[in-house]
Design brief:
Elements: E1 2-9, H1 16-24, H2 32-37, E2 44-50, E3 54-60, H3 68-75, E4 80-86, H4 93-104, E5 110-115, H5 122-136, E6 146-148, H6 157-169, E7 181-183, E8 186-190, E9 194-200, E10 205-207, E11 211-215, E12 219-228, E13 231-233, E14 235-237, E15 241-246, E16 259-261, E17 269-278, E18 286-287, E19 291-296, E20 299-307, E21 312-313, E22 318-329, E23 336-341, E24 347-355, H7 368-377, H8 380-391, E25 396-397, H9 398-405, H10 409-421, E26 425-428, E27 435-438, H11 439-459, E28 466-467, H12 468-475, H13 484-493, E29 498-499, E30 503-505, H14 515-530, H15 538-544, H16 549-561, E31 565-569, E32 572-575, H17 576-593, E33 596-597, H18 598-605, H19 609-621, E34 625-628, E35 631-634, H20 636-642
Parallel strand pairs: 1-3, 1-4, 4-5, 5-6
Antiparallel strand pairs: 2-3, 7-16, 8-9, 9-15, 10-14, 11-12, 11-16, 12-13, 12-15, 17-22, 17-24, 18-21, 19-20, 19-23, 20-22, 23-24, 25-27, 26-27, 28-30, 29-30, 31-32, 33-35, 34-35
Helix pairs in contact: 8-10, 18-19
The structure holds guanosine-5'-diphosphate (GDP) and magnesium ion.
Magnesium ion binds near residues 16, 17, 40 and 62.
Length: about 650
């Protein structure tokens, strides 16, 4: 099941809370004050099952401008939005402000619900729709589906659900891979349990019993129990709404904005380096040291903007700045944030965290801009890892990486070292420089090769190993014939394989027959020794010793490799002992007579004509003899031998 978080957004009284109730049956206005005043003040939570195996947590936010702060605490973790616009009023100030916030937080998916459709006629509705389309055209929600609904009559609700499901299907699920991080949006006590915090799990997983750290105060605690979307659960995954019961912590020690996280991953900091955009709609430029309110996940913090490369930031401009805060912030690289003016409170901008715990920069310290720009793309190890992942099975060199990333050789080398240490990259020493692949690829190769070889050895137990070139061309064609030995040598160094001149084997593989076969092979060899110059043809020998054709081939290759048998012509094999003796006899004869005919050779070796000619041709090839007409005279090898 895919888990997503949907947030509402829109002007006060446009029907957000009633729509959530109509969709889920849950009234998210729980406070007495909310009931009395008829408006949402706090965040409300509900859950909704959508077609396509989707479990959505819904965060209902207050629309009133006085409670934007609460709205901001709620939208930090959302994946998509329902932008609620009442048909009778159309676009209003907080419709705009909420949409600005949604954009600053990079929530780029959503559905527009035109509510209270029961209150207007078709003509009016058409006008409102026109307006909304024009309003959304320059925003990421330009293509968002626009659904007319009435929470009162229930019309359009089914359509809204399918539209939500459709949009949600396109979301990439949050990764549970990283370490757990849960910004707290509510804290309360449950009698008999103690302190409970709730929030959206932004990354990682949480299990009952896990040690956690509550930051910025660095309180350590343990998870006693967990609820996901209101149901008891053993664990929670990224993207879920979670309630966590933690041990040994008082409610007073935690507040909205604290973060519950796996210990040791987040560093509280008074400073943040960020990329900041001032909205076009900001009323005036942002000046050096301007005091602002920072909204980061569920936290609200006061601080000042330190401009580095300019005197002021004009509406619509983007640059790198340092934020100096009055309290500790807890952030991770890539987190999004919003800023508002100190007073009056207006949403004026936002951006991305580049460095969550930087050194102090001076006002106007221009030279830092370049390194922040590089940092924004990622740290060298992150960037290098991306490149290795992209390269897949194709090994890359340091030089490839320098060219691809623009980093210096030193930076690349230290990034690679770090990635090797964290087992994310693997270096393979080659002739003049190392080759690198992602560790996952290398491990998969080890597995492939291990499985390949053990299957091969099972099938061809008498063979030394798998032919190297065949392995390369079938499974490792990303390696050139020149570079492949480097990979094999590295795997041999790690003890995974044994590398021979032509083949590769598992280190414990012995190309030997089992005892039963060994006994038969001794007899078979003896047959060749006993009939040195009149041995049986190979198929015949196989029949004698009960070897079928493929076993016979295996044995033949085995004998040839051990140099027990020598091939003198197609389907003609002699024992190497026969070759040695024949060579000696021929040489002796030549010494005495200077030349030898086929008939003389046949008599000397007391063999048949069938073997004589191939044997002499074999000696011609190894230059023991040289053919002159129908006769043989001593060859080069013979002359060298006799010198
Ligand atoms: P919110 O501030 O956006 O959460 O708005 P509420 O859901 O609290 O609704 C505000 C008011 O509008 C309430 O009085 C609702 O009864 C009314 N309302 C909400 N949805 C509809 C609707 O579809 N049709 C009509 N006629 N009234 C609605
Ligand atoms: Mg409401």
């Amino acid at each position: 099941m895919k888990h997503i978080i949907i947030g509402t957004a829109g002007h006060v009284d446009h029907g957000k809370t009633m729509l959530v109730k109509a969709l889920t049956g849950i009234d998210t206005d729980r406070l007495r004050e909310e009931k009395e005043r008829g408006i949402s003040i706090e965040l409300g939570f509900a859950s909704l099952e959508l077609p396509g195996n989707l479990q959505a947590g819904i965060v209902d936010v207050p629309g009133h401008e006085r409670f934007i702060k609460n709205m901001l605490a709620g939208v930090g973790g959302i994946d998509m939005v329902i932008l609620v616009i009442a048909a009778d009023e159309g676009i209003m100030p907080q419709t705009r402000e909420h949409l600005d916030i949604i954009q600053l937080l990079q929530v780029n998916k959503g559905v527009v619900a035109v509510t209270k459709s029961d209150l207007v006629d078709d003509e009016w509705m058409d006008l409102v729709e026109e307006d909304i389309k024009e309003f959304l055209a320059p925003t990421p929600l330009a293509a968002a589906p626009l659904i007319k609904v009435s929470a009162l009559t229930g019309s359009g609700l089914g359509e809204l659900k399918s539209a939500l499901a459709r949009e949600a299907a396109g979301l990439t699920p949050r990764s549970s891979a990283g370490r757990a991080r849960l910004p707290v949006d509510r804290v309360f006590t449950v009698t008999g349990f103690g302190t409970v915090v709730t929030g959206t799990l932004l990354a990682g997983r949480m299990h009952i019993g896990d040690q956690v750290e509550i930051i910025p105060d660095k309180i350590t605690s343990r998870i006693r129990s967990l609820q996901v979307h209101g149901q008891k659960s053993e664990f929670a995954e990224a993207g879920q709404r979670v309630a966590v019961n933690i041990t040994g912590v008082e409610v007073e020690q935690i507040e909205r904005g604290s973060v519950v996280a796996a210990p040791g991953i987040l560093k509280p900091s008074f400073r943040l380096d960020v990329k900041l955009t001032l909205l076009e709609s900001a009323p005036r430029p942002l000046r050096q040291r301007a005091r602002v309110r920072l909204y980061l996940s569920t936290a609200e913090l006061l601080g000042r903007v330190i401009l580095l490369d300019r005197e002021e930031l004009k509406p619509g401009e983007t640059t790198y700045v340092q934020l100096r805060l009055e309290k500790h912030a807890v952030a991770a690289k890539g987190d999004r944030f919003v800023i508002r003016t100190y007073s009056p409170m207006l949403t004026i901008g936002g951006g991305t965290i580049i460095d969550p715990a930087p050194k102090k920069h001076r006002l106007g310290q221009k030279d830092i801009i370049g390194s922040l720009a590089t940092r924004e793309k990622g740290t060298p190890p992150e960037i290098v890892r991306q490149h290795l992942e992209l390269a897949g099975a194709k090994p890359v060199t340091e030089l490839d990486l320098i060219k691809a990333t623009g980093y210096s050789r030193d930076e690349i080398i230290s990034a690679l070292k770090a990635l090797e240490a964290s087992r994310e990259a693997k270096g393979i020493p080659a002739d003049n420089q190392n080759l690198y692949v992602s560790r996952a690829i290398y491990d998969s190769w080890k597995q492939t090769l291990g499985a390949l070889l053990s299957a091969y050895h099972r099938e061809h137990s008498l063979r030394e190993g798998y032919p190297r070139e065949e392995i390369r061309s079938r499974y490792f064609h990303h390696f050139s014939a020149k570079l492949f030995p480097a990979l094999l040598n590295e795997m041999e160094r790690e003890g995974l394989i044994k590398v021979y001149a032509q083949t590769v084997a598992l280190p414990d593989h012995l190309p030997e027959p089992d005892p039963e076969l060994a006994a038969r092979l001794i007899q078979l060899e003896n047959t060749f020794l006993e009939n040195l110059f009149m041995p049986p043809a190979w198929p015949e020998a196989c029949r004698m010793y009960g070897l079928d054709e493929s076993a016979g081939q295996e044995v033949l290759q085995y004998f040839l490799r051990l140099n027990k048998l020598v091939k003198i012509a197609d389907n003609l094999y002699l024992h190497s002992e026969a070759i040695t003796r024949a060579r000696q006899s021929v040489l002796d004869y030549l010494k005495e007579h200077g030349e030898i005919s086929i008939g003389e050779a046949r008599d000397v070796l007391s063999t048949s004509r069938k073997f004589t000619l191939p044997l002499l041709e074999y000696f011609d090839r190894e230059r023991t003899t040289r053919r002159v007409g129908d006769l043989r005279v001593p060859g080069r090898a013979a002359e060298i031998n006799s010198k």
